What does this fold into?
Amino acid sequence: MPTNEIYKLRSTFSIIGLTGRTGSGCTRFAEIISKDAIKFKDNPVLRKPSEVRYLNYLSDKNTVFKRNYTVCYNFFQKNYKQYTTISYIDVLFLYILHYVVNKLEVKTKCQLIDSLFILISENFMKSIEPIDSDYENVEISKDEILNLDVDFDKIIELIFKLKYNICESSKEDLYSCFFEGPVKEFTNKFFMLLGSKDYYLGSFFVHRIGNKIRATGDPYANIQKLEELASTKNIYNLVSIINILIKAYKKINYHKPTHICIDSLRNSLELMFLKERYAAFYMITIHSDDRREERISKRILHEKYSNPNNINLSVSKVINLDVIENRSEDFKKGLFFAPDVENCIQKSDIHLCNPGKNIASFDSDLYDSSFYTMIEQWTKIHSLILHPGLITPTHDERCMQIAFISKFNSGCISRQVGAVITDRNNSIRSVGWNDVPKGSIPCNLRDLNDIINPNQINKDDLSYSSFEIKNNYKFYKDGGSFSSKTKEEFSVDVAQTNLMGLAHSFCFKSLHNRYEGKENQVHTRSLHAEENAMLQISKYGGQALDHGTLYTTASPCELCAKKAYQLGLKIVYIDPYPGISMDHILKNGYNQPKTKIFSGIVGIAYNRLYEPLLSYKDELTILNKHK
It folds into this structure.
C-alpha cells in the first residue's frame, strides 16, 4: 500500500520566503532551487555520500552526520521538486505598470515612456534625499527607456486586461501577464538601465518606490509628505499581489505541483501576512559571513553595473542603504511601510548559511561534519518539507529551539531574546531570557498611568522604584524628577490615546536616557538573556563550562561577549549584534572564542518538519506490505 496520499499536501504545495542582508545570497539561493533536477547532478558543491569523510571513527558526531547526509541525499535525488520564483522586484514593477496603465489611464507607448521618465526623474535624478553630490549629474533619457528592446504595446495590452484593483483580476489574465508576459523582461532591462548608471541608484530606486507603495499605494507620492500620507491600509499592497499570483499559478497549473519561492521579503508585516494565510509557508533567512562587500563588488562587476572606477563608492552606498533597511528606525516609529530586515530574521523559521563557492577555503571541521554549502543545506530542508521526521534535529537545532521557546518568557517590550548554555558534551546546563531580576516586575506588566498618577498606586504594590514615582528625586539638570517629567510630557497623550484595552507599558531606559540627554545601556532594568543564563549556573550551583557553548537567538553585546570569552564558551548566534562585540572583543587576543552563525530550523517549523506524520516503523511496514 503506497503512502503517497498521506504526503500529498506537502509534495504538491509549499511556499518559501527568503530574507537576508544585501549580498547574503537570497537571489543566488532562489536560482539554485529553481533549477530542474538534471542540473543538480555532478554539482561540485553537492557532495555524494561517498565523498563525506570520516574525521574520526571514535567521533559519533561525524558518523551520525554522514548517515543523516546519506538519508537526505538519497531521498532528495528521488523526490526533488523544482520551485518557481516570484521576485519581489518583479511584483513591484507589475504594480507600477498597472498603476500607470489602469489608474493614470495611459494607453500608448509614448505615454507609458513619458510616465516612466517622470517616475525616474522624481525618485531618481532630482530628489535623492539628502541631495547627493556624487550623483547630481546622473541622467536617464526617454530614448534610453525606449531602447530597452521590450514590447511596450504588448505590456499595455496585457496590463489593460487587469481590473482597476489588480487583486480582483482574473487568475488567467494575471498569470499570462506575470508568468508568461514581457513584464519580467521589462523589469530586468529597466533595472539594468538604472544600474548601468550606478548599481546603488537602482537599489535606491526600488527601496524608495517600495516604501511609497506600502505607505500610500501611489508610486508618484510626494516623498517629503510620506509620513503624513501613510496609511496602514496600504501596507499589504504588494504582498496581496504575491498572494493572488500564488493562487493564479496554482489554478493554471492544477495538474502539477505548486512550489513557490518568494525572493525576497524585507518587511516583517508582509512576512506575517503570508504566515497567517499559508500553513505550508516557511520563512528562510540566508546568512553570510563578513565577505558581503566583496560579493556585492563582484556582482556589480559581473553584471557590468556602474562605472568600474566608482565601484568603491557604489558598494559603500549599497552597504549604507542595507544598514538602513536592516535596522529601520522608521519602522520603530510606527511607519510600518519601511523595510525591517532585522525583524524578518527574528521571525524566520529556517536559517541557512552561505559560505560561498570556493571549496578550498571551507572550514574543514564544519565542512566534514555539517550540511555545508547552500545546496547541501537545501537537500536537508527540502527533504524534511516533503517528509517530516526523515532525520532528527542536530545538537545546535535542539539547543537553539529551547532558546527560541524561552525568549517568550521575556517581559521586555523592545525585543525578546533567549539563550542556552551547554557543557562540552552538549548537555544543557542553563537557560535564560532577557528579563528583570527575580522579584522585580517585568516591563510589559507596568503602566505609564501609574507614573503619571503615583498616588493611585497601592502602598503594597512594589512594581515601581522610588526613583520612578517620588517627586523629591531631583535627578535631571533642569531640576525635574522622573515622575514629573513623565507627567509633563505624556499625561495629555496618555489620556487621549485609545490603546484598545492594552496596558500602557513603557521602557524606563528609553525615557531616562531621553530626559538625561544621553544614550546609555546601563540603565536597562532587564538582564540580557546570555547574562541571565550565566547567572543561573552561579545561583543554583557552579558547573564547569569551559569549552561549552552559548546559544543565543540574537548575538551577545559587548558586555555579554566579554563574559562568554572569560568562561571559555563557543558562541552560536542568529543575528549579529550591531555594536563592536565581534570585531573588538571576540576577535581579539590569543584565546578567541569560536563563533558560528546558526544554520538549521527553529520555531513552529521545528515541530512541523521534525514531527513524523507516521511512525517510521509503521510506514516501512505499510510499504513492505505488512511483512
